[in-house]
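Database export, one record per block. Field names are fixed; values are copied verbatim from the stored entry.
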Amino acid sequence: MTDTLENPMLDKIFLKARTHYNWTDKPVDDALLQQVYDMAKMGPTAANSHPLRIVFVKTPEGKAKLKPCLAPGNVDKTMAAPVTAIFAHDLEFYEQLPKLLPHVDARSWYKGKPGSDETAFRNSSLEAGYFMLAARALGLDCGPMSGFDNAALDKAFFDGTSLRSNFICNLGYGDYDKLYPRSPRPDFADFCKIV
């Protein structure tokens, strides 16, 4: 595959995209969230494992459940966001492998094996990254964060399940008039090495 994206799309996804803390009151349609997910799920994961599970918090009841789990500095921006995605990983992701990778017994590679939890965490993190890029590509703005109490959030949303929270991300239509100046990014030579 040699085709590349045109600059306007690269700007939208990477070069001019920003982390948002302030939101307009425009709602996010459930069908758009599904469209974003349907695009993001096409990204690769180890053994097609897809351990990511997402809870989209939109309702007043959901926000009331989420609010006490948040760090104080993240409450206002999260309560104002039209949607907050809780990105979680399923520690029993391997139970879906007979369906997701049917041509081999991939379930036996993970069930009860060391490293299974790391596989769930790592690959769900990849998937959450794909989700945010897909969200930007389809017109949403993102505000990812890790400022919350994982244990409290897991108890509130995932008690009695094999799901564990990774991070959360506010989604909606950002208020571009209230953006902070872009923070510096590292130079290739300072953070990368070719060997």
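Remark 1: The CA atoms of residues 67 and 182 lie 28 Å apart.
Remark 2: The chain has a mean pLDDT of 96.
End of record.
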